[in-house]
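Quick one: C-alpha cells for this chain, please?
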Amino acid sequence: MPEHTTDVWPAFVATLPLDLGLPETSTPADSGATSRRQPSLLLVDDDPFMLGMQSRMLRSMGYTMIGTAASAQAALMLLGAGRAAVDVVICDLNMPDVDGLEFLRRLGESDFRGNVILLSGEGPRIIHAVQKLLTARPLLILGALEKPAGHTALRMMLDRWQPMVPPTAVAPKPTYSPADLQAAQQTAQWVLHYQPKVDLRTGALMGMEALVRWNHPEHGLVYPDHFIGLAEDCGAIGPLTDWVIQAALTQLALWHHAGLHIHMAVNVSMDNLLEPNFARKVGALVRHSRLSPQDLMLEVTESRMMAMSSVPLETLVRLRMQRFGLSIDDFGTGHSSLAQLRDVPFTELKIDRGFVHGARENQLIRPMLEGSIGIAQRLGLQAVAEGVETEDDWSLLREIGCDIAQGYFIGRPMPSEGLRAWLADWMLKRSRLIAL
C-alpha cells in the first residue's frame, strides 16, 4: 500500500476541473421541537418484587401509563383480550411455565405491533442469542438490558420508541432477468460510486472502494444486492466485473494525474476467481491504465469462500505474486475465517460492520473486534473496520490500534465528482478528530 501525505489534499481540491460539479444533496427539514406522546408500557415479570421496583422506577422517570403482568400467560391474555393498548412490552426472559422465548414467539404470531425491551439476568451472550432469534419474527426489538436495569439505560432504550405509523401500500420490488442484465451491459447502464477509506492515526485518505450501481432507465439507481446474485447465476458476472475494474482503474488514473495518489478497492466474485485467466486479465488492465498492481486491492467476501477449490486459490496466489493487494471482506461472518487467513495470502483484513458499530458498549462484540485487529497485526495485515457510523466507533478504533476506517461517519458512497466536496469537508472534520 503506497505512503500518502496530506499536503496534496488542498492542491487536489483546488485543481479539480470546475465542470465536475458537485453531487446533489438534500438536507431533511428541521422537524422542530415537536413533542410526541408518552408510550404505554406493560411490564412482564414473575417476580413481584422486581415488578414493583420497575414500576416505581418508571413512574419516577415520568411514565404514567404502566401495566403489569405476573406471568407471560397473563400478559398474553391481557393483550389478546384487547383490554390494553400497549406500545412497549418490557419482558423478563427467565419465567416459569411460559418463559420469555415462548412468550415472544406467541407475541410475534399475534396482532401485537408494539415494541419489546428484553430484560434478563442471564448475561450478554444469552441476550444476544435471543435477539438473533427474534430477527426472524415480526417484532420490533428496541434492545436488551441486563437486570436490574438502571434509570439511564432504560431511559435511553425507551427514547428509541416511535409511535407507530399506519402502514402504507408498498409497491412490489421489481425483478430482473438475464436479458435485463445483458441490456444494461450493452447500453452502458452501470455506474460506479466510491466510498473513502482513511488512516485512523492521521485521518489521511488512503483509498476508495468502487461500488457498482445499476442506473436503470425505469427504476433509477439499483443497488448490487438486487442484481449481483442474478449476475452470478446467469454467467453475467464476468463481463460486469471486467467493466467495474476497467472503470475504477480509469478513474484512479485520473485521480493520480491530479495529484491524489491513493489505491482503489474492487469487489470480486468467487465466479471471477474460477476463470483460469482472471489474474492475467487483471494484470493487463492495470498495465493498460499505466498503474501498478499495488494500486489495486481486490476484495473477496469471506462467506463466499467456504468451499474454495484449488482453482480460485491458484488465482489468488497468482494475483498476489503480481503484487496485487488481497482483502478478506466481511471478516467474521463466514464459517472458516481462520482457515482462510491460514491458506490465502491476504494483505488486508476487513472487519464486518456487525463487529464494529456500537462495540464500545457491547460486552460481546468488543472482544471480537479487538481479537480480529490483534490477528491482523500478528499476521502483518492491514486491519480495516467497515461500518464506522459514529464518533464513538471512530474513537474506539483509534484506541485499540485499528489501521483504516470506512463507513458513513467518514463518508457515504459518492459519484467521482463528489470527492472534491467530501475532501474539503473531511479536512475540517479530521483536524478535530485527530486532536482528540
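Residues 1-8, 14-34 have pLDDT under 50 and may be disordered.
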